[in-house]
Amino acid sequence: MVFLEQLPKSHVSEYRCRVNLNLYDSPSCKGLATQAAIGRQLRVLSLTPVDDALEVCLREDNYVAWLPMQDVAALEPAATKYKAIAVSFSEIKDRLPGAIAFAQNAMKQPNYYLWGGTVGPNYDCSGLMQAAFVSVGIWLPRDSYQQQAFTKPIAIEELLPGDLVFFGTAEKVNHVGLYLGEGYYIHSSGQKMGRNGIAIDQLSEQGDEISRSYYQQLLSCGRVVASYEPNC
Question: What is the pTM of this model?
Answer without folding.
Answer: 0.95
